Amino acid sequence: MRITVLGAGGGTGSKIVELAREAGHEVTAIVRTRNGRDAVADVMDPDSIGPHLAGADAVVSAIGARSVRKPTSVQTDSTKALVVAMKAHGVRRLVVVSNSGMITDGDDALTRYLVKPILRRVLRHPWGDMARMEDVVRASGLEWTIARPPRLTDGPRTDTFRTAVDTTVRGGSTVSRADLAALVLRCLADPGTAGKAISLAY
């Protein structure tokens, strides 16, 4: 499969690129800053993204905000540009990385009424951006999947995570970036995940 990955310079994006290449996929890694190895594009500009989508079977967006303290629209705006570019180049399959923190369906009472309200105040800027990004994805008309991890760690790949569709994983509070990357690749290979938001956690 030919896969283009946006946000490939981040912790999650780099794991997705690594695992995809290990699995034998042809990967175009897009980063914001030139590093002499990956493709550079302005992710807010469809014309800049477009050339890197030519011939792709699927696109993954692992773009994230660089700060939790300031208002941001990086995920919303980059996703809008990506949708335009994908349609222009005839690419239909999209997997985006969001988060499960802003979702309370399936949570126990402690998490729903104590933990997440606190986190929602602290992370209101990036979570608000992710919620708006999900709206863009759902309205895109593409074959999309939203991957929703909880707090991410740099732990190893275990393939022992649990998943839930359109709800949270009850009692799950962490997952490694490596396992998130593994889920993203599973979603790309499974057309049955299109049109669904899939949470994962241990």
TrEMBL record:
InterPro entries: NAD(P)-bd_dom (IPR016040), NAD(P)-bd_dom_sf (IPR036291)
Gene3D superfamilies per UniProt: NAD(P)-binding Rossmann-like Domain
Domain NAD(P)-binding residue range list: 7-191
SUPFAM superfamilies xrefs: NAD(P)-binding Rossmann-fold domains (SSF51735)
Record protein name field: NAD(P)-dependent oxidoreductase
Organism the protein comes from: Saccharothrix hoggarensis
Upper classification of the organism: Bacteria, Bacillati, Actinomycetota, Actinomycetes, Pseudonocardiales
